[in-house]
Amino acid sequence: MTEVKKPPQARGWTLPHARRRSRGWTALLTARPRLSLLVALVLTVLAVLAGSGVADRLGSGGWEDPDAQSTYATKALERAFPASQPNLLLLVDAGTASVDDPQVAAEADRLTARLAAEPGVVGVGSYWRADRASAAGLRAEDGHEALIAARITGDEKTMGETLDRIAPAYRGDHGPVTVKVGGMVAVRHEMQTIIQEDLTRAEMIALPITLILLVMVFGSAIAALLPLGIGIVAILGTNAVLSGLAEFTDVSIFAMNLTTALGLGLAIDYALFIVRRFREELAGHGDPLRAVATTLRTAGRTVLFSALTVAVSLAAMLVFPQYFLRSFAYAGIAVVLLAAAAALVLLPAALVLLGHRVDSLDLRRVLRRGRPAKAPGEEGTAWARAATLVMRRAPLFAVATTTVLIVLGLPFLGVKFGTADDRQLPASAESHVVQQHIRDGFPGSPGGGLEVLAEGRATSAQYAAYKARVERLPEVTRVEGPLVEGDTAYFTVQPRGEAVGDAAQRLVGDLRATEAPFTTKVTGTAAVLVDSKHAIAERLPWAAAFITIVTLLLVFLLTGSVLIPLQAVLLNALSLTAMFGAVVWVFQDGHLSGALGFTSPGSIETTLPVLMFCVAFGLSMDYGVFLLSRIKEEYDRTGDHAGAVRLGLQRTGGLITAAAVILAVVMVAIGTSRVTNTKMLGLGIALAVLMDAMVVRSLLVPAIMRLTGRATWWAPAPLRRFHTRFGLSEAEPGETRTSGSAGPAGQTTGSADTDGTAAGTTEERDPVNTGG
């Protein structure tokens, strides 16, 4: 008899010392399950206490580059000329009367004086107190509305507290006028309040629907509650982490949405994977302790690798200077690691205690009407048939799926980047109403001009000569100033067109290139946008390289293949095209704006595509690792490439789809937010997750793996040795290929495969081509 060729893991692909560490960790987790759960309960209670009120300590800005020229100029102007940077606007509406009516003017002047006396408010000015040149921009073209402008000082929290204190005294009717409160401080404060309200509503929507879906997946109410509990622990823990971080650095309140979404989504993903594997093992030999040990050695390792790949994608946002993006990295990394820790520590302890009771309260029994439930290992035959079909027509599926994904992404070629403003808020929000009135009814887009900070001693003649040069620039409509304070001065330059339009952005570059006998720095809405785009473009290659290199390394350690990591990165990126195309078509171009209830600003906030890419890419890798690890496990066990792909999809296809649907439900709940950026984030990632699970993992991955064949698993000898020493395998220790028997000339013949064909190990008959 010829010796049967040993499977890859028997040739050293799974390390003995790694097995010993795995067994030691398993014994540690399962020896005192009640103690583990008690400690977790105590830590969760502490997290609730530490994370309470976290939203009040978070900011609502963070889109600008803190090291940019525009940021420096803004802070310098705030110190030297507070009136140049108003963040509070009172819209005074005289009704049918004119703002020049004596009674209207008297009441408005009284309000201006009262506002100037408020603590924490500086730089108060108004149409009624301004000189002739400045007054024109503070009066509506129809003569019925005018503005009072001021600046609230302090950090975001202090400004919010000041606004809460003074706004009720000014909002509403005052004799002949009606006042509405607006300005950037009001926009951000209202945005913060709405996000907190919307997040609570999203949780109330997502939790019961998620529980129902989990019951449909598992059947057992007990099994369904386990993933939900893990998700809640991860969310509460991350809130505590964010609360701690807020004491040392700026953290955006938008990150709380990601905390909820990923906390529920990933914890449920990981728990689904572990509970499903536990039930398979329990059905096989009936010993809960042994089932937990096997589950941790196989599915547990996959969960750990999945968490690392998601964390890597989110960590890439740390290379960007905007604290809006960095906040999502803080929240994302924390929630991913906490979700994985809860799934790998708390869940095994609970499964040991539950044992066979994990299948208790089978709520699907009524629907089966006496038919026995399928054993976990018997599920997924439809996915096996689908995989066989796809692999038989692999070129067709590969080309057709790729073409569709590319076409869906084409609208992104027309993307226009902008800044987040009041149009993020619902149309009924007071601060949005004020800004919309200003856009529609006031000349010269008040607040949309560019400010040029001039530092250094200069004469009146030098200021005048510089002003004349600026007035000759092609995109300038008028120049005001200079206002001088010691060795510092500033000019206000009004651009043609919109405040952040192409003309305004070109003017920023022209102003920075204009010669002056003093140091100049340009700020304003368009300048902030230009600097933000530059910061992202400058660091984007570093972020992309970080994600790519670390992902390639992690997937190689998981599979030992050179080709699979490349496939994973490329297919993951391809799966995001539909998301980016939909973002532009819907949120920039305004399609479905009425149905979805938002106001399109005609652009996409600069940081949003980066955020959505990092989050969606990480989630795609999450599902990719689940599928590839099971395919690798089967290939190690049988050596049958096509059979491994088919069985891997059979065992994980339904699981991945269920996880994607549940995560999509959570993201859609987040997408019900009244804040446009949050709506875009939730609905966009929901689409990306569904496309990845239902199109890329179900159609494109098996098609591509069929086309690459057994070359999929190739690696040069040095890399094979590296993987042997440091790599990971999901194969059970000591397993050998049970499907092959010795054949002539050292060949092996396989046992019947699931589609009725033989699968060998050295001369393999391809079941995709030979039978069905």
TrEMBL record:
<dbReference type="InterPro" id="IPR000731">
    <property type="entry name" value="SSD"/>
</dbReference>
<keyword id="KW-0812">Transmembrane</keyword>
<keyword id="KW-1133">Transmembrane helix</keyword>
<keyword id="KW-0472">Membrane</keyword>
<feature type="domain" description="SSD">
    <location>
        <begin position="228"/>
        <end position="353"/>
    </location>
</feature>
<keyword id="KW-1003">Cell membrane</keyword>
<feature type="transmembrane region" description="Helical">
    <location>
        <begin position="330"/>
        <end position="355"/>
    </location>
</feature>
<feature type="compositionally biased region" description="Basic and acidic residues">
    <location>
        <begin position="762"/>
        <end position="772"/>
    </location>
</feature>
<feature type="transmembrane region" description="Helical">
    <location>
        <begin position="251"/>
        <end position="275"/>
    </location>
</feature>
<feature type="transmembrane region" description="Helical">
    <location>
        <begin position="681"/>
        <end position="700"/>
    </location>
</feature>
<feature type="transmembrane region" description="Helical">
    <location>
        <begin position="35"/>
        <end position="55"/>
    </location>
</feature>
<feature type="compositionally biased region" description="Low complexity">
    <location>
        <begin position="745"/>
        <end position="761"/>
    </location>
</feature>
<dbReference type="GO" id="GO:0005886">
    <property type="term" value="C:plasma membrane"/>
</dbReference>
<dbReference type="Pfam" id="PF03176">
    <property type="entry name" value="MMPL"/>
</dbReference>
<feature type="transmembrane region" description="Helical">
    <location>
        <begin position="542"/>
        <end position="564"/>
    </location>
</feature>
<comment type="similarity">
    <text>Belongs to the resistance-nodulation-cell division (RND) (TC 2.A.6) family. MmpL subfamily.</text>
</comment>
<dbReference type="InterPro" id="IPR004869">
    <property type="entry name" value="MMPL_dom"/>
</dbReference>
<feature type="region of interest" description="Disordered">
    <location>
        <begin position="730"/>
        <end position="772"/>
    </location>
</feature>
<feature type="transmembrane region" description="Helical">
    <location>
        <begin position="655"/>
        <end position="675"/>
    </location>
</feature>
<feature type="transmembrane region" description="Helical">
    <location>
        <begin position="569"/>
        <end position="588"/>
    </location>
</feature>
<feature type="transmembrane region" description="Helical">
    <location>
        <begin position="394"/>
        <end position="413"/>
    </location>
</feature>
<feature type="transmembrane region" description="Helical">
    <location>
        <begin position="608"/>
        <end position="628"/>
    </location>
</feature>
<dbReference type="InterPro" id="IPR050545">
    <property type="entry name" value="Mycobact_MmpL"/>
</dbReference>
<feature type="transmembrane region" description="Helical">
    <location>
        <begin position="211"/>
        <end position="236"/>
    </location>
</feature>
<feature type="transmembrane region" description="Helical">
    <location>
        <begin position="303"/>
        <end position="324"/>
    </location>
</feature>
<protein>
    <submittedName>
        <fullName>MMPL family transporter</fullName>
    </submittedName>
</protein>
